[in-house]
Write a structure and sequence with these properties.
Blueprint: E1 7-13, H1 21-29, E2 34-37, H2 42-54, H3 62-68, H4 72-78, E3 81-84, H5 91-102, E4 108-112, H6 120-125, E5 143-146, H7 151-158, E6 163-166, H8 173-183, H9 190-203, E7 230-233, E8 239-242, H10 253-260, E9 270-271, E10 276-278, E11 283-288, E12 291-295, E13 298-300, E14 305-325, H11 329-350, E15 358-364, E16 381-390, H12 393-401, H13 406-409, E17 414-417, E18 425-436, E19 442-445, E20 451-454
């Protein structure tokens, strides 16, 4: 517990691939105490699992190293601590890569224990099903990772970490952890935990809270220098949302409210590992230009289960695009797609392959997204997107070879193909499940290589997680 009256936390990444300019902006202009990076969506875990399968030294968010390393002197001089879920499915490799760039003098602590692949058979034997579809668990998973909460991050900071690297954890825990550490909040301070979780939820998607993808987008200035979000938090749980001065974007009650309702399901029952949140009584008030006050989150005892996400190999996919011009371009594109699939289905059957497991095509430029409500009927230039899935890679290689012949054997006006012949790639699918909290054993890996266990079942009730969990 620091005794500070306020803590300022800035978020420099809302996803893997966010702007490399965000960290620099927050460090140089944000007057922050903590810098957090959120990288891990479910699809990102799939990508990282594939990367680690190819190379055991990968499987983490490589952007993190590139974003942080150039600013090491500024982080040191300002005493800014860093919390990031950049570890993905390989936190140790992430630490090695970062330590190599930063050099000596940094206490980098890992949060581990989210990896449940070693107990996959136990989960199978328990008959655990997919939490949304009730489908049985795949026979072989590439990865299984539990969503950890803030408590391991708190322990890492109490161990003196300059930088905390986690694997899978809920996005908001990256902010809640520092607040618990700095203000000495207890597990029983449920409303404070809910407010801290809300602060983390508002900034976890980066510039979305500062006017990015805002409904009234014409009102948002300065896209070329978009400001990234900062929460200035108080010991009583209240906080302000703002951004660095002189940056683009905007912070208003409307931009903040849009982010509050983003991806939370039921706002009266938002389930997280540390607390169940009720956001229905939250008050968002404009207090100054680009400064908004947020209060009123209510907390309930945490659920007895943790959500986990598994990935598994589900066949192969192929995707390509064809450019088509001239009159009746959209109609030609639809006919080309139908013909390519009909031709290759016949060829697959002749060669003893099964049918595609899934096919799709879209005509970009003819409002395919709108289906029967499309208004554009006479486009003279379109892009045809063709995609297919199959259990056999060679079946999709056959499809790839049959795309180019469309230029001379089908409709006139095919003017090009994107990036040459397409290549099949593996399909990695998501399987979401619920795991009893006592089956998850979190720990810290300290800089000296020692391990410290972290108790996750400190305070939880009997609530079922259900489908509202993050």
């Amino acid at each position: 517990m620091s005794g500070k009256k306020t803590i300022r936390i800035g978020c420099a990444s809302g996803f893997w691939g966010d702007s490399a300019d965000a960290a620099k902006q927050l460090i140089e202009q944000g007057r922050i105490d903590y810098l957090v990076f959120d990288y891990l969506a479910e699809i990102t875990m799939s990508i990282l699992s594939r990367a680690k399968a190819k190379n055991p030294d990968l499987g983490y968010a490589t952007d993190f190293i590139q974003a942080l390393a150039p600013h090491a002197p500024s982080l040191k001089s300002q005493g800014i601590k860093v919390v990031a879920n950049a570890g993905g499915v390989n936190p140790e490799a992430c630490r090695r890569a970062l330590a190599c760039k930063l050099g000596e003098g940094w206490n980098i602590v890992l949060v581990e224990g989210d990896d449940l692949l070693p107990i996959a058979q136990r989960l199978q034997d328990m008959g655990i099903c997919e939490m949304f579809s009730s489908a049985p668990m795949p026979a072989k998973c590439l990865s299984i990772n539990a969503y950890l909460g803030a408590l391991p991050i708190v322990e890492a900071l109490q161990a003196g970490a300059d930088i905390v690297i986690t694997g899978r954890c809920v996005d908001s825990a990256l902010t809640l952890g520092p607040l618990i550490h700095e203000f000495g909040w207890k597990n029983s301070d449920l409303n404070l935990l809910a407010q801290g979780s809300l602060a983390g939820h508002i900034i976890e998607c980066g510039a979305q809270a500062t006017g990015g993808i805002f409904t009234d987008w014409r009102q948002v200035p300065g896209w070329e220098n978009m400001g990234y979000p900062i929460v200035e938090c108080f010991p009583d749980g209240g906080f302000l949302v703002t951004k660095p001065e002189g940056t683009g974007g905007m912070v208003t009650p409307a931009t903040v409210k849009e982010q509050i309702v983003y991806e939370i399901g039921n706002p009266a029952r938002y389930l997280l590992p540390d607390v169940i949140c009720d956001f229905t009584k939250v008050e968002v008030v404009d207090v100054a230009e680009n400064v908004v006050s947020v209060r009123g989150a209510v907390g309930v005892v945490a659920p007895r289960e943790l959500k986990a996400s598994a990935t598994w190999r589900g066949g192969w996919k192929l995707f390509t695009t064809i450019m088509i011009g001239g009159i009746e371009a959209a109609d030609k594109a639809r006919r080309v797609a139908e013909a390519i699939f009909a031709r290759t289905r016949r060829m697959l059957a002749e060669r003893g392959f099964s049918d595609y497991t899934e096919t799709s095509f879209e005509v970009i430029g003819a409002e395919s997204t709108y289906g029967e409500w499309a208004r554009c009927q006479h486009a003279r230039e379109v892009i045809l997107k063709i995609a297919a899935r199959h259990t056999d890679k060679e079946a999709l290689n056959l499809l790839a070879r049959e795309i180019a012949p469309a230029a001379t054997s089908m409709a006139p006006g095919i003017t090009g193909f994107a990036a040459g012949r397409a290549k099949p790639s593996p399909v990695v699918r998501l399987f979401s499940l619920l795991v009893p909290r006592q089956m998850v054993s979190a720990s810290l890996s300290l800089s000296d290589g020692s391990k410290v266990n972290v108790q996750l079942a400190a305070l939880c009730g009997t609530a079922d997680v259900g489908e509202e969990a993050e």
